[in-house]
Amino acid sequence: MIFRGLVGGAAAAIAAATAWVRPAEASEDTGEAAGPILAKTSSIPVGGGRIIKGTWVVTQPKKGTFRAFSAKCTHQGCPVSTIRGGTINCPCHGSKFRIADGSVARGPAKRPLARKKIKISKGVIRLS
């Protein structure tokens, strides 16, 4: 009997705490698009790109066209480190990926970089 009382009391406390937290979370609507900001469009060079926080790569293969990829090499998971000469480059084993579509330009990687969906609004690039 005592055990049931403790379990019931704990469940009620959790429900009360959850109910208290949810309205605050629901009211935090800033009106901004979903997804974190990656970069400003003006900071991404045409024909190149930027590595963002070691996690994402944002490129601009031609003026006004932006792409986003994972910064994790598909060969063995090393983070890519440079963008030069139209490729995104991994320092670990020399894999290179094209800035236009993340496809493999030079192995040993066999798969393209994972492409990420982005949304561009008012000169800001966000994950969508």
Automatic annotation (TrEMBL):
PROSITE patterns: RIESKE (PS51296). InterPro entries: Rieske_2Fe-2S, Rieske_2Fe-2S_sf, Rieske_Fe-S_prot, Rieske_Fe-S_prot_C. The keyword Endoplasmic reticulum does not apply. Gene3D superfamilies: Rieske [2Fe-2S] iron-sulphur domain. CDD domains: Rieske (cd03467). Residues 36-127 form the Rieske domain. Keywords: 2Fe-2S, Disulfide bond, Iron, Iron-sulfur, Metal-binding. It comes from the Bacteria. Its cofactor is [2Fe-2S] cluster. Iron-sulfur subunit of the cytochrome bc1 complex, an essential component of the respiratory electron transport chain required for ATP synthesis. The bc1 complex catalyzes the oxidation of menaquinol and the reduction of cytochrome c in the respiratory chain. The bc1 complex operates through a Q-cycle mechanism that couples electron transfer to generation of the proton gradient that drives ATP synthesis. This is Cytochrome bc1 complex Rieske iron-sulfur subunit. The lineage of its organism: Bacteria, Bacillati, Actinomycetota, Actinomycetes, Streptosporangiales.
